Amino acid sequence: TGPLRVLCVARLIPRKGIEFLIRALAQLPNSSVQLTLVGSGNHEDALRALVRELELDQQVKFMGEIAHDNLPSVYRAHDVFVLPSLNEGMSNTALEAMASGLPLVMTNTGGTSELVEDSVNGRVIAMRSAEAIAGALNGYISQPELISQHGHASRAKAETMSWQAVAERYVRLYGELKA
User: Fold this and answer.
1) How far apart are CA 121 and CA 159, in angstroms?
2) Beta bridge partner(s), residue 5
3) 72-122 pLDDT per residue, tens
4) Are 114 and 40 in contact, with CB atoms under 8 Å apart?
5) What DSSP assignment string belongs to 113-161?
6) Residues with Cβ within 8 Å of residue 13, at least 6 apart in sequence
7) Which helix (H) or strand (E) segment is 104 a member of?
8) Cα-Cα-Cα-Cα dihedral sign, residues 7, 9, 12, 18
9) What is the pLDDT of residues 22-31, one digit of tens each?
């Protein structure tokens, strides 16, 4: 099968916790994971230096900014979406990953509980923990069938969060209140 293809779409700033994702790769068997980072930010040079220091140059790809229209094909080319944020609102990139049918590995920050049902469509992990990220990724490496199971669950959950679905729930609720 090949390496687990992991994607993180985020601004490359300290608050996103990407350093812990990179450190997690160093804890996994060599070349069992390919990480793609999409985005830019003031922490990019430090993250590139960390990749070199940990000798992960062959496993980590920095793609920079990508036009929003081109993101769907990027999501589809990956197995798992990871967002190890230290502070986050409702993440648009996590919603996009769900709509693309990817399992989510996320820290428990704002909005995570609405997006990730642990062991159903992904894993909720501890903050600032490369070990927790490595553990979650290792779960997908050792049980690849979970990728499609969690991915299908992500897609189904995303469909309940569309504007159409939300509007229909409001109309139904309004009808019940009037009755």
Assistant:
1) 13
2) 34
3) 999 999 999 999 999 988 888 999 999 999 999 999 997 888 899 999 999
4) no
5) HHH--BTTTEEEE-TT-HHHHHHHHHHHHH-THHHHHHHHHHHHHHHTT
6) 41, 42, 43
7) strand 104-107
8) negative
9) 999 999 998 8
